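Per-record layout

source: Liquidambar formosana
name: malate dehydrogenase
length: 414
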Amino acid sequence: MAATSAATVSIGSTVSFGSKASAISQSKSKPFGMRFNSHHSLRSFSGLKAATSVSCESESSFLGKEGTAALRDSCTAKAVKQNQRSWINLQPQASYKVAVLGAAGGIGQPLALLIKMSPLVSALHLYDIANVKGVAADLSHCNTPSQVLDFTGNAELGNSLKGVDVVVIPAGVPRKPGMTRDDLFNINAGIVKNLIEAVADNCPDAFIHIISNPVNSTVPIAAEVLKQKGVYDPKRLFGVTTLDVVRANTFVAQKKNLKLIDVDVPVVGGHAGITILPLLSKTKPSVSFTDEEVEELTVRIQNAGTEVVEAKAGAGSATLSMAYAAARFVESSLRALDGDGDVYECSYIQSELTELPFFASRIKIGKKGVEAVISSDLQGLTEYEEKALEALKPELKASIEKGLAFANKQTVTA
């Protein structure tokens, strides 16, 4: 190995990679393990995914097999020779500003921590109506590139959004036992409306990630507010449904004893109950399911949120897994903004894929937002999936119309 190239990269822990098919196995103390295979020097590294001359495999990646990237072209490789070995220093070029609106909440805090870890983020703006200064002070001690700034209350909301590239909105009240997503509507709809008005006024070109439930209604609300403000770009408005994909991948891998990093299950429809439709027939790698397994997995994925609510027994809803999923989507957006041409995620967007005006499906994300909708996922469905797709449409349609009605009866300040 005297002639091999190596690199040292730190993302939560430090691991070294040699370019001659060296393998580093995952240990309990490290968040991921990787293997590189290359006949050339390591030219660039994309976080958990290597670029052209290097292949990378992560045992428990943050982004999944096709999305394990964070640095890529934003890393500058500088080779120096030392003791006849060529070493490469990877220097993250953090350049994007991200705002988290609702940063002091149960989702906002772990989400902010995960975003703080991204080497693509230069500034992290944390906004909430109270208690955000402590969160920001705490996060500011983490030795990652981004600068953390806090903003409290409506008077500081506009400043929190100045010059921001990505806005993430987890603000709102969480579900409690016995509460449906629809029960959250009246409170969270008003919160989202107010925040989107501020986004429209201060960073209309930003990618907007809506997490606040019920997403089936809050995304249409956001779209209407942006239209009323004259700044709506449907390619830049995303409902974050990544948690449904994360759950589907996890449950399928467990059920079929598959290597989790290899599993990819597209999830379409919406983000509540039966509107969540995992397309198990489209699972990669290809795997067969019995009718019983399909029904069991589908129902579990649809009700996974309730599973967490009940397990927490009144102490909250799914916050950690939601933060993880949202951070994955943020990282994908940042990679797309940074020029990565291979970014795919499922998201709830304005869509022409069905007769519904909004629909969750797999999309390709680019520098300007949604570049393509992957329509092939809805082709060749099983009979079970076809029936489930038709069954979800009335409920999703009602949720969309409820959001549109709320937005249109409100007065938006120009």
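summary: Residues 1-92 have pLDDT under 50 and may be disordered. The first strand starts at residue 5 and ends at 10.
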